[in-house]
Amino acid sequence: MISFWTLFYKELLRFWKVSFQTIAAPVLTALLYLLIFGHVLDEHVRVLGIRYTAFLVPGLVMMQVLQNAFANSSSSLIQSKVTGSIVFVLLPPISYGAFFAAYVLAAAARGLMVGLGVLVVTAWFAPLQIEAPLWILAFALCGGAVMGALGVIAGIWAEKFDQLAAFQNFLIMPLTMLSGVFYSIHSLPEFWQRVSHYNPVFYMIDGFRYGFFGVSDVAPQNSLAVVVASFVAVSSLTLWLLKRGWKLRA
Amino acid sequence: MGTAVSIVDVVKRFGALTALAGVSLEIAEGEFFGLLGPNGAGKTTLISCLAGLVRPDSGTLSVLGRDVGRDYREARRLLGVVPQELVFDPFFSVRETLRIQSGYFGLRHNDDWIDEILHNLDLTGKAAVNMRRLSGGMKRRVLVAQALVHKPPVIVLDEPTAGVDVELRQGLWQFIRRLNGEGHTVILTTHYLEEAEALCGRIALMKQGGVIALDTTANLMAAHPGGSLEDVFVQAMNR
Ligand SMILES: Nc1ncnc2c1ncn2[C@@H]1O[C@H](COP(=O)(O)OP(=O)(O)OP(=O)(O)O)[C@@H](O)[C@H]1O
Ligand SMILES: [Mg+2]
Fold first, then answer.
1. Which end of chain A is more exposed for a tag (fewer CB within 10 A), N or C?
2. How many whole angstroms separate alpha carbon A208 and alpha carbon A57?
3. Bridge partners, B215 (sequence order)
4. Choosing among A5, A8, A22, A88, which should be mutated to test the B contact, i.e. which has the most B CBs within 10 A?
5. What is the pTM of this model?
6. pLDDT digits over B165-213, tens only?
7. Are B84 and B158 in contact (CB under 8 A)?
8. CB of A152 within 8 A of CB of A77?
9. pLDDT (tens digit per residue) in B139-164
10. How close is the Cα of B150 to the center of ligand 2, in Å?
11. Residue B8: beta bridge partners?
């Protein structure tokens, strides 16, 4: 247990010590999206009966929760692999379960912190409405955990920083951007609506947004079921890979 | 005295290259054991197998009776390894590094022992300094300190004195000798043969993944009256 807490604490400390890059920067990015898209579209667009800027905020928050959770575990792992300092966690008697939990929870924590930052900053620009805070928390936590676990896989798989960047740019970014952050999927053609339903990130964003407005494309309990199922699938795979020492122990 | 480390028929291949070609070694508790051999002989690979960093293709290894595969957590608790590569985590100070390493081994309030290690490795003045700001030799000392935070009964040092100045070398050996005197088993690899000659009670010479000589330092030296360990080494390698 102590080894889990230590690894978790070390992972928190790692991003906290460079919080300018790991927290402030993504908050600023989200704010820029809001200012630009909100400015251009707020007058003309209403989604689910909500003004566009207000509609956009939860999507941006969740997008940053997800992307930063992924970034945290994946970059921490690749960094320690490239520098060799990964031996410090491979030599001690840390069980693979504790290893997994520490990286995933720290990743989710970073995601939540960034998300909270985005929420606070954007509250100045769009009225904040919260209908069901528990749904918000549940989706943020589960979504962050899914991405944190994916980040563990990506960080262990990648041997170089550019491989990780490819994973991020060709998988994580499209999955999050094409999930309804900027639009309701009802505005999409039939075909793309159906495609969206195969993207687990769609359910994360949709359910998260439900917590704010009390309306969504899919019933929140169904969305949560999909997200939890994704978490079970991704974490089973991650735990299995960790147990085998995949790419970590030659 | 029981067996500290038991290595039986360990084979490890990296693709077409056979790094360990069936190594067997038995090291008793309390020994100061030298693992010598030229670059690429397989010393680090053998140590990595013992530490669970590398998985052997066949053979078994155990630390104080704990199999490094099956009882990996117990085996790792009993082992302290100073890696050959000079690695460090740039986010932390020396003390943070050592506290975190203690935590990984399940130890919470370890500052008394950490202070003692820092003192013995002449790092007390650097405790609050970030790892990035240390010189190479200082970083090497921290690596040694990290391997010792959990007072491991078996200590493995993979070229701990590479790039370290004379003064620290003396200090380091004094400390390691003390630990050895208190019952810790020590396994050392080094390319400084005078060091091995002075410290090790028994030595294994490795070449191309195999052990080509294994005896007490005294017996090895006896084959070369008036010579040094270097003569023994050179002759064994050219045989
Ligand atoms: N991860 C790896 N992948 C491929 N080959 C490897 C790997 N690790 C070691 N080797 C090879 O295995 C052989 C043994 O290497 P090892 O590092 O064990 O030697 P060593 O005795 O420690 O040498 P040195 O004195 O230079 O440290 C070398 O030929 C090396 O190139
Ligand atoms: Mg070596």
1. N
2. 11
3. B203
4. A88
5. 0.93
6. 888 888 899 999 999 999 999 999 999 988 999 999 999 999 999 999 9
7. yes
8. yes
9. 999 999 999 999 999 999 999 988 78
10. 24
11. B60
Sketch the domain layout of chain A as residue ranges.
2-244
The Cα–Cα gap between A14 and B89 comes to 10
Task: Tell the residue nearest (CA) to atom 18 of ligand 1.
Answer: B42
How far, in Å, are A66, B134, B142, B208 from residue B131 at the CA level? 31, 6, 9, 36
Q: Please, what's the largest Cα pairwise distance for chain A?
A: 59
Closest CA to B51 of A91, A61, A63, A205: A91
The tokens 């980040």 sit on which residue?
A151
The answer to whether A97 faces chain B, any CB pair under 8 Å, is no
DSSP B77: H
Which residues surround ligand 1 with Cβ inside 6 Å? A 250; B 14, 17, 19, 37, 39-45, 84
**Which atom of ligand 1 lies at the shortest distance from residue B206's CA?**
21
- Interface touch A250/B83, C-beta < 8 Å: no
Q: Which domain holds residue B220?
A: 1-78+154-160+189-239
Q: What's at A104, amino acid-wise?
A: V
Domain presence at residue B85 = no
Q: pLDDT band at B14, cuts 50/70/90?
A: very high
Pair type for strands B17-28 and B3-14 = antiparallel
For testing the chain B interface, which of A5, A6, A22, A82 should be mutated: the one with the most B CBs within 10 Å? A6
Look at chain B and report how many structural domains it folds into: 1
